Amino acid sequence: MGERALEVRSKNAGPFWVTMELFMRDAEGYATVADEGFINEEVIARLYDLDPADVQIFRIPALNVVKISYPRPVAQGSLRDRDVHAGQHHVPLAALVPE
Known about the structure:
The protein contains 3 helices and 4 strands, in the order E-E-H-H-E-E-H. By secondary structure, the protein is of the alpha+beta class. A hairpin with a 4-residue loop joins strand 3 (56-60) and strand 4.
């Protein structure tokens, strides 16, 4: 995924949610991940060990962007939080290879 995207990033969306963004290089790359269903709730749930019902996906074709939000595994800043800024959550998504 990282090769087809300009940027793949993750960040906090409040203390209980993570947001990831895929900024695709062009409309063709966007179509591969968004329109053809490569990125969907089940894929994200499998990557991050989530319930698919908890995954929210927002597709923004005018910007070639896919935004994904899901509940943090632990609350931000809690004792077990190993990534306070949620800056490393994007790594499994960036490593995903579109078929």
